[in-house]
Amino acid sequence: MRDEECVAFLRWALPRLRMRWPGFRRVRRQVCRRMARRVSELGLAGAPAYRRYLEAHPQEWRRLDECLHISVSRFYRDRAVFDDLGRHVLPELAGAARARGAGALVAWCAGCASGEEPYSLALLWRFTVAADFPDLAFSVVASDIDRGLLARAHRACFGAGSMKELPADWREAAFEPSGRLLCLREAFRQGVTFRLQDLRRARPKGRFDLVLCRNLAFTYFDEGLQADVLERLRAALRPGGALVLGRGERVAEEGRGFGEWSEAHGVYRRT
User: Fold this and answer.
1) What is the pLDDT averaged over residues 232-238?
2) Neighbours of 213 (CB within 10 A)
3) Residue partners of 77: CB distance under 8 A and separation at least 6
4) pTM more than 0.85
5) For 162, which DSSP code?
6) What is the pLDDT of the chain when averaged over all its residues?
7) How far apart are CA 51 and CA 91, in angstroms?
8) Which of 138, 142, 182 minimizes the C-alpha distance to 158?
């Protein structure tokens, strides 16, 4: 499928799925390859034929939606953000949890892909914060819409290339080689749970001290869907909790219920 043909198709299809083209511009090759495979499976001639097929077979929109799941992920992605979480955000949240008599600090990673982000968060707590708060447990609920990615997250084995930003001493302590991969030791997986869930329609039960929703809703979703998701995130956070977005993502001005915590790192406080 030619690039211009795929782009024209995406510009037509994305708004119908409450998605926005600018978010997909840089990652379109990943999406276009998946679409090309699907078009070939259906025996169609190209994107125009696939458009006609979608119009005649509404159930196919679900398969197209699956082609749009972006799976770019790595450990400690945007290192400065994780460093800020470890130095400032997590200690403050832990102090607040201790002050109210809580026994645990709970985080949610929305759109966790194959698990690099929630495991990074668990390692961050273990190596930089836990010693100062021995009375607090730390747990992470990680959700994603893609069953295949979640299966990889459960296996917890990764290529060395996905760990370039992870501190080297953490990698040495937490991972063991398995063939050409590095697998997270069982002791470092504890407290991280995964669930199949579509952020556009649901969220995990309970209240969270910290929510990471990075490089997902506020990159790929249209403005109306972003507003819906923002309300879902607000409802998930306890007052004073932290919401972390991706680089370049921002809470819309009309997104009430949040104040800036660390603008440079995309961290907001639930007011």
Assistant:
1) 96
2) 23
3) 116, 117, 120, 165, 214
4) yes
5) G
6) 95
7) 51
8) 182
